[in-house]
Write a structure and sequence with these properties.
The complex is a heterodimer. By secondary structure, chain A is mainly α. Chain A folds into 2 domains: 35 residues; 227 residues, MetI-like (MetI-like fold), CATH 1.10.3720. Helix content of chain A is 80%, strand content 0%. The two termini of chain A are 41 Å apart. By secondary structure, chain B is an alpha+beta fold. Chain B is built from 9 helices and 18 strands. Chain B is elongated and about 80 Å long. The two termini of chain B are 38 Å apart. Classes of the chains: A mainly alpha, B alpha+beta. Chains A and B meet through helix 10 and helix 11 of A and strand 6, helix 2 and helix 4 of B.
Chain lengths: 267, 317
């Protein structure tokens, strides 16, 4: 009995937990969506408001991911390769978005860009931040900021800086060294970080909910649309959009599993 | 193509890595920086390469002040202990790196890389990746890569330190021959006195961030200026307050003059060399180095009482 427990105990706990908390609900969403056939789900997805919501989510992601990729790599390089005062602080602050509730982030932006906030004067010059794309992008960038840096930092530490020093002695400038030596060496970590960032951007709800104003067909992202449909008793619509988001998540998972072994083989 | 370092000091926090070090490396020479770990030898090499900025002092390479120059502008080739191979590039692309950076014509690069791969005997490995090479092959690739840009000086940081004994001996001899062919001014760091004596024509012995002595292998061995140099370069045994080379300790079967009485603890046969471990009457342990023939002539055996005296001894202040 004890041997049985030792062999299957931990595994059993892990599988049961995952099943009850994750897979069960997900399966139920799948079931409900296609309960009345694929046609209903398609109809729910092709309303102009829903199409617009997906478009908005994609636009926000397309802006946030590249910016956070560049920032994440630069930040990781600074943390690992440079010595400067306040480095520990930077290292800790990169993780802040992971610890902070997105709603708090949204609220902070609200205070910052609201009528009486530090940047409230932007509104007087006709630059609309809150309740429009800029605020939603800023909120999304904030919550998805740590992922690239967090993936790249350990890889940079592991490869060390000897290859970079060798490149320098062979005549490469810092820029050439980065493009030809550093970036190829960390490429899998970057790709992994980009995937995680993308997933976070697509799924962001809390911070965006606070700053978007939720104008249907205008500042409503896919996740906000799910909630709006749910509250309007359009369960079929809510399920259909959820299923698309869930499928994207599954794709992300698959992509990561495909990449991971490769990364290990490279090192 | 000479290197002149003057008054170099470098601290890392509280640790003094280099303390007012000056060294001259003549054009075309093969100089070894020899010392135990933490003696500052690698730091000095990295300062010459520009990979480390000295706190004080200046570096002149080929008559030109290089102290403020970035590493890529110094015309140095650097070889690292752990190869620093570009893992995502083939051997060919590793060797070609410096030339590609300088945007040389493709045909010229191909020709030069072919020459270098032949020089380091890696012709048939051009399309492999570093992970598919042995340690010795990787280090030869790193050497070819450093030589590709025709550096004025070649700097090697414990180049054979990560290799096993047999490969190390092979590469030492090979480096010596390469130097005779290419004649590039070379400085290499090592903690292995045998390696330094075998390969270098000038050795700088370092300890605690200072250079203790600079000289040829023979000069250092025969005329060490300090206790540290004597004990670091070649074997020593201590007799009272004096240092003796074990082959300068004479074993006599009968008492004579100032020879001290001693008992043979162990006779170790190492082929041509025989090591005799002794305890003197005052309980001090010494050892003597004999040839096989000398040992046979004396018919030495464990437990035997003999008399020892130093033919040549040194006292350091």
């Amino acid at each position: 009995m004890t041997r049985f427990l030792r062999r299957f105990g931990l595994r059993g706990i892990a599988f049961t937990y995952l099943g009850v908390i994750l897979l069960g609900p997900l399966a139920l969403v799948f079931y409900r969506t296609f309960e009345n056939g694929v046609g209903d789900a398609w109809d729910a997805l092709s309303t102009p408001e829903t199409v617009n919501a997906f478009k908005l989510t994609l636009i926000i992601t397309a802006i946030a991911v590249p910016l956070n990729t560049i920032f994440g790599i630069a930040c990781a390089l600074a943390i690992v390769r440079r010595r400067f005062p306040g480095k520990g602080l930077v290292n800790a602050f990169v993780d802040l978005p992971l610890a902070l509730s997105p709603v708090v982030v949204g609220l902070a932006l609200f205070l910052l860009y609201g009528r009486d906030g530090w940047f409230g004067w932007l509104g007087d010059h006709g630059i609309q931040i809150l309740f429009s794309l800029p605020a939603m992008v800023i909120a999304t960038i904030f919550v998805s900021l740590p992922f690239v840096a967090r993936e790249v930092v350990p890889t940079l530490r592991e490869i060390g800086d000897e290859q970079e020093q060798a490149a320098r002695t062979l005549g490469a400038s810092s820029w050439q060294t980065f493009w030809r030596i550093t970036l190829p060496a960390i490429r899998w970590a970057v790709i992994y970080g980009v995937i995680l960032t993308t997933a976070r951007c697509l799924g962001e709800y809390g911070a965006v909910a606070v700053v978007s104003g939720r104008l249907q067909g205008e500042t409503e992202t896919a996740t906000l649309r799910v909630e709006e449909r749910y509250e309007s008793f359009d369960l079929a619509g809510a399920y259909a959009i959820s299923i698309v988001l869930a499928l994207v998540a599954v794709l992300v998972l698959v992509a990561m599993t495909v990449i991971r072994p490769k990364e290990e083989a490279v090192q | 193509m000479s290197i002149v370092a003057t008054g170099i000091s470098k601290r890392f926090g509280d640790f003094v890595a280099l303390d007012n070090v000056s060294l001259e490396v003549p054009t075309g020479s093969l100089t070894a920086l020899l010392g135990p770990s933490g003696s500052g030898k690698s730091t000095l090499l990295r300062v010459i390469a520009g990979l480390e900025a000295p706190d004080t002092g200046e570096i002149v390479i080929s008559g030109e002040d290089a102290t403020e120059l970035a590493p890529q502008k110094r015309g140095v080739g650097f070889v690292f202990q752990h190869y620093a191979a570009f893992k995502h590039m083939t051997v060919r692309n590793n060797v070609a790196f410096g030339l590609t950076i300088r945007k040389r014509p493709k045909a010229e690069i191909r020709e030069r890389v072919d020459q270098l791969l032949e020089l380091v005997q890696l012709q048939q490995f051009g399309h492999r990746y570093p992970a598919q090479l042995s340690g010795g092959q990787r280090q030869r690739m790193a050497l070819a890569r450093a030589l590709a840009v025709e550096p004025e000086v070649l700097l090697l940081d414990e180049p054979f330190g990560a290799l096993d004994a047999r490969v190390r001996a092979e590469l030492r001899e090979w480096l010596r021959r390469l130097h005779e062919e290419v004649h590039v001014t070379t400085v290499f760091v090592t903690h292995d006195q045998e390696e330094a004596m075998e390969v270098a024509d000038q050795i700088a012995v370092m300890n605690h961030g200072v250079i203790e002595q600079v000289g040829g292998p023979r000069e250092l061995y025969e005329d060490p200026q300090s206790e540290f140099v004597m004990s670091f370069v070649g074997p020593t045994t201590r007799v009272g307050e004096t240092w003796v080379r074990p082959h300068d300790l004479e074993i006599l079967l009968a008492p004579a003059g100032d020879a001290a009485e001693a008992m043979i603890e162990r006779v170790v046969h190492l082929g041509f060399e025989v090591r005799v471990e002794l305890v003197r009457a005052d309980r001090e342990k010494v050892w003597a180095q004999l040839t096989r023939d000398q040992c046979e002539e004396l018919e030495l055996a464990d437990g035997q009482i003999v008399y020892v005296r130093a033919i040549q001894e040194r006292v350091f202040a």
